Amino acid sequence: MPEDRGPERHELPAASQSSPPPRRPSASSPTSSMFPSHAFPLANSRFDFAPRYQSPTSTHPSEGVASAPGRYQQVRDIKTPDNERSSDNWAGNWRPPEESASSSRGSAITDYAESSPRTTMLSQSRPSSSVLDGLSPPPKSPARPKPPSNLADAWPSLPTSSVHQPSDGLPALIRRMPSTSLTTRSHRATEEWVEPLEPHDRREISFEKELWLLTELSLRDSALPGSGTPVRTSAGPTLPIHAVQRSSRILDVCSRPAELLHLAALQPGARIAHLAESTEEGTQQRPLPHNVAGLSLAMAPGVSFPLGDASFDHARVTPAGVGAFSAPQLKGLLRECQRVLAVRGMLELRLVDPTPVEMGPNTARWVESELLVALESEFKCTRPAVMVPLWAREAGLELMEADGFGLHEFRVCVGEGATAAERLEVEVGQLLLRSQFPCVKSWLWEMDTCKAECLERATRFRVTTVFGLKA
């Protein structure tokens, strides 16, 4: 009986010493360590994949890279099934350089080279005669369209490079501010934030508080006597002040950024030219609203606006603008405003009288030693409430005068039990004082003796708005 030896076992012959080593995958092989199999979606049963370029003599990926251009040869293309035109066929959009005009075949190597850092490095190290060098670079992102310049047609002399796109968030908030309650305005303008604060956050909070104070000032303007009724002049009755302020062409002279944004937000349909003081390094580039064009104003002894005659319906000078000019320059400012205003155009100039009302001895001493000395050292006007109306008449403007017309009084400080309206009044007055007199280093409400005296006497500063009509 034959012996049961179980299943036959076949012994494999031992490898001879002369047999060549196993061939290592080349750099173009989809299963190499350089290109793993999961990186190629075509490595499945639906496609018959073959590498497009390979080196016939290379046994290592690095050798294929360093080979001469003639050692690369084309093998065959990628074959896809009938549904190769489906949306998930990512290789169907490739075109060989020599067949770009007629062929729509795909290449996995080209697409993967654009997304793989290692493949990009290899393709860059190949000689310049490689076929991959003929591939067109990826398309560049389209350039941003330039913002529209709606001021160029109306004012050809105004530069359009400073016109920026609108920012709808903050202007919309400014337009809603007058509808809020008095308590809300007082809280937002006087609230204290928890320290410490970053410098950027501190500036943003201060900027928003200033916008709330400017809203309160505009509401107080509308409550003044005669602000909503026509004003009679030698040329006949003119429009009410608020109607004049809603002009289509407005000149803004050296106002603060918050004042400019507040004006542009309340009058989005107006075209505003903003004159800013130029510095030694040049004009400060600030983000401007979409309806504002910025101009540089050189603070020379003779003030001259880079604008044409009769090109504006309304000119506005805030306390910050008054404080930016010396006494001789204020006369030139008024003459230039009269020149650029059209017939029946209006000048609106707001200023703070540096001499307070109902002041005591300590307050008078502070005015003489701090405020007036600081103004005289920079040749500023020490009596603007008296001199500006005289200079405006000399410039050819007709002033609109009436009892209480354009006049505000703001208390220096209030006590602990003050109402919301009284706290807002103090904050608005202090803002205007700091804007017109930035050269003052210490204020009387910061000194205990002056503060107690101002509380006892109800010391106030007068803010006057001069309205001049070009007849």
How would you briefly describe this protein structure?
It is built from 14 helices and twelve strands. It is of the alpha/beta class and 471 residues long. The protein is globular and about 50 Å long.
Second-tier CATH architecture of the largest domain: 3-Layer(aba) Sandwich
User: How would a crystallographer describe the biggest sheet?
Assistant: 8 strands, mixed
- Overall, the morphology is globular
Proportion of beta-strand residues:
5-15%
What is the count of distinct domains?
2
Mean pLDDT: 73
Query: Fraction of residues in helices?
Result: 25-40%
Low-confidence stretches: 25-35, 39-94, 96-136, 141-167, 233-240, 280-284
**CATH homology superfamily of the largest domain:** Vaccinia Virus protein VP39
Tally the helices.
Answer: 14
Q: What name does CATH use for the topology of the largest domain?
A: Rossmann fold
Distance between the termini: 139 Å
Radius of gyration: 39 Å
Give the total of beta strands: 12
Mind telling me the CATH class of the largest domain? Alpha Beta
Q: H/E order of the elements?
A: EHEHHHHHEEHEHEEEHHEHHEEHHE
Structural class: alpha/beta
Protein name: Methyltransferase type 11 domain-containing protein
Biased composition (Pro residues): 136-148
Organism: Immersiella caudata
Biased composition (Low complexity): 25-37
